[in-house]
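Quick one - inputs below.
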Amino acid sequence: MSLNGWLQIALFITLVLLLARPMGSYITQVFERRRTLLDPILVPCERVLYRITSIDAAHEMRWTEYAGSMLVFSAATLLLTYVVERLQHLLPLNPQHLPAVEPALALNTAISFTTNTNWQAYTPESTMSYLTQMLGLATHNFWSAAVGMALAMALVRGIARRESKTLGNFWVDLTRGTFWILLPMSAVVALALVSQGVIQNFKPYDSVKLLQARQLTGSDGKLTTITTQTIPQGPVASQEAIKMLGTNGGGFFNANSAHPFENPTPLSNLLQMLCIFLLPAGLVVSLGQMVGSPRHGWAVLAAMLIFWFAGTLVCYWAEVQPNPLLHGVDQHVSLLQSGGNMEGKEVRFGIVNSALFAIVTTDASCGAVNSMHDSFMPIGGMVPMINILLGEVVFGGVGAGLYGMLVFVVIAVFIAGLMVGRTPEYLGKKIEAYDVQMCMLYVLIFPLLILSLSAISVLMPHLGLSSLTNHGPHGLSEILYAYTSATGNNGSAFAGLNANTPWYNYSLAVAMFFGRFMMIVPMLALAGSLAGKKIVPASAGTFPVTTPLFTVLLAGVILIVGALTFFPVLSLGPVLEHLLLRTGHTF
Amino acid sequence: MKKHIITACLYTAITAILLGVVYPLGITILAKAFFPKQASGQLIVDNGQAIGSRLIGQPFDSPTYFHGRPSAAGVGYDATTSSGSNLGPTSQYLVDRIHASVQQESSGIPVPIDLVTASASGLDPDISPAAAMYQIPRIARERHLSRTVLQQLVIQHIQPRQFGLLGEPTVNVLALNLALDQIK
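Output:
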């Protein structure tokens, strides 16, 4: 670990914290329908949109109607993507003449993008046409993030409102999140990325003449000479911007943000990491503002920072370690090289930016990668996995991180209440049996999906194990990471697992679908229940939610729930691999 | 319910056009106006023939050129299937592959790690300054050039950290080899 490395980490988190407050204030303005700078342009367009789609903007929805609208909308967008994928060979903007996407893969991808997962079981540059990328996939990057923000706002309103039956209007929240926040920010970020070298065009792929022709011996013993290289093109920057801002993570290219056309310079890399944390951090500040207790927002943010820092420290440390199995190589950090575990990492990012990106992308539910997590050291790869297993509440996905965190806040307040023997209250709302049941449902669906689907895959050699690249405990990690990433709607991968098989396409689709929607419904039920409650005035027995004590309790609850659930399986995967590596075992 | 479905379908159709067609087209027009070179992939053109992109690595295995990193993209530097090796640290295959590369490169001195490890994209255009310096004795021998000249060349091609702070120092292999061919 070097001084420069820590400076880069410090610069990143300082920028996040500086931007969190203005971002949060703007989010509050937008969702409380106060005046903003963009109103003169957007308000007339908004009215036209509502008139065509017969949306009554003044109509307030109960949680059931809110959930219903969200599900119907998600179904419509899912269907659109499936149809575009299946018909891409007949549609325009397909200069490479790519054929229709296979049904299992098309379904998996449609669910993947609808649920904000952006799991990719395919190689985009040789599977998806430009139109599919734009109309079928990038649109979901807006929609699924805007849905996440809308849901978070519904829960925040549930906390803030008193004796109310309603949570706001889903369509209005969706529209404002998309057009006031995501679209203008994406446009700015996209152009900034182009300035760094992210491509943006509709050209067919280029063919270039190699400087040095290469002779290869094929498997049949024949010599072939390679003299050209095909350079892919496409509208990348526009998709890249919303991929990060919406914590989606689905790359235009297979190598995602490691690809030089998606992430060409260290500055574009910093910008991408900032985009991942910007809205989630802003939403937490906005929570504090909307419930009338800004300090509560900062207390929650502090709990997130604890996990972010611990993860960064451990992952950075693990990745600069030399691999003890290698001989005749120089793995030391020096002025002339970043050293460490460079397998699956890019030279321009080195160890520090690869480790930091891995932490940021899994703290949030982004899932973009600028290095291959499968090739991380055992402990280095375990940290991103743990981040997702904790429920992606450390900043978390746009919206999804905040409502996930609030579920843990309710549990933390409940446990504090149990410890002092009083009815727990959260910001004046009594937390009752029904509320805790909904929270526990939210928390338990997650390990149920991950552990049972991983167990089934491990028990079925033909379906589950034949897809592995790595064997031994690392193979278990590949499977576990896949279901963790899918259920957590992250989308990053231990990509050695060949997930483009019917079993993985369908089972991961199930994990992504239920990991999103089966967790949203109890969360909205909680929001509906909280909205209806009276406000009890704070008393001497009220547990304050603005103090460092609260921050520590919250962090403790998240860690205990996650650790108790997943420690056994982690000890069979990455922990065992770490111990075997030290003793010189290979597989 | 029926009303909700109609609303959802109309809403999906309209916003799909705005976000999926109008937005990327708008960005393309602006990108072309402000950053035409960057937007189209920074191709290097020589006598009307595109000979590579500054950002996309090319395979070099001749001893007379500076080598880039091993690549897991297709048969190597296949830009239509960007990919890392995805081999874990305890993979026997990985250990064997690295030791074989060490055998090929080695002059007895430890090889800089990035020169024998596959990048994340399989298209990494860069190597570390250490990896470029390491290859100087071989190039000097093969091309009958003095080491000082080559050292000068490498130092000229070191791209320092962005703003002196961000990322890592790099050497672009294609640019370095193009310059190498210019030396008489």
